[in-house]
Design brief:
Largest sheet: 5 strands, antiparallel
Strand order of the largest sheet: 4-3-2-1-5
Helix content: 55-70%
Structural class: alpha+beta
Strand content: 15-25%
Length: 190
């Protein structure tokens, strides 16, 4: 089968194109790599690629802009969430600290009051005659009209009984009083 001269010319042209394709592809790839290696930042790389006609950079620029916007939004959301969390944590910690302080203050006041009362009672016992002496004195006044003075009041009546830690006194109107011996400050017969 014989080829026409026109078919031969087309076949030779096609073979020539095929031979230059790998060189052209390799050349384009090398140009891209050289451009990328020599660029110092993304903007410079995109400008160089676009200027040399190596790549249409509008798609890459749009992708980078979209990515930057999304990252910025994510950072803003994260910052706002972190700020809210920090504010909530601070408010909770402040409330807890205030509650703890109030509780500790109340406990300290209660303890101080109880300790003060205990010291007063101990001093009163130390300064007053011993309870045995007081108990003996009151026992000698049984069924007599006496006046017992305490820190808060003075009672007058008939002394009915003296027990280990209290005395029983009946006033003229029939009111019965149980007086703790440690609270009695003075005793007088009437």
């Amino acid at each position: 089968m014989a080829l026409s001269s026109e078919a031969k010319a087309r076949l030779l042209n096609l073979l020539g194109t095929l031979q230059t394709l790998p060189t052209t592809a390799t050349s384009t790839t090398n140009n891209l790599l050289n451009t990328a290696n020599s660029s110092t930042n993304v903007t410079e790389l995109l400008n160089t690629l676009n200027t040399n006609g190596l790549v249409d950079t509008s798609l890459i620029t749009n992708l980078l802009n979209s990515t930057t916007t999304n990252v910025t939004d994510l950072l803003n959301t994260t910052t706002a969430s972190a700020t809210d969390l920090l504010n909530t944590t601070t408010a909770t910690a402040t409330g807890l600290l205030n509650t703890t302080t109030a509780t500790a203050t109340g406990l300290l006041n209660t303890t101080t009051t109880a300790t003060t009362n205990l010291l007063i009672d101990l001093l009163r016992l130390r300064l007053l005659p011993s309870l045995n002496a007081l108990r003996n004195d009151l026992t000698n006044r049984l069924n007599q009209t006496v006046q017992l003075s305490t820190e808060y009041e003075t009672l007058t009546g008939v002394l009915l009984a003296v027990l280990s830690d209290y005395a029983v006194l009946v006033e003229s109107d029939g009111t019965m009083n149980f007086v703790n011996l440690s609270k009695i400050e003075t005793v007088a017969s009437l």
